[in-house]
Amino acid sequence: MISSVGAKTSLVAAVSESQKQIKSEQVRSVEKDNDRVAQIAAAIKNGTYKLNLQSTSEKMALNLLNS
Hints:
mainly alpha, 0% strand
């Protein structure tokens, strides 16, 4: 039989592990975003960045209609 103290300790450990996993996922997400920003900045700098005007205008129109 597990005592209530042992159960609380296990719960705290599980929550701590979940928090570590969430933090790790957040760090990976930020790193991925930073990589994408760097790629876009390089493309703009060397003149190879292309806009998809159709997609951009559609998203802008939807955004205005949903506001």
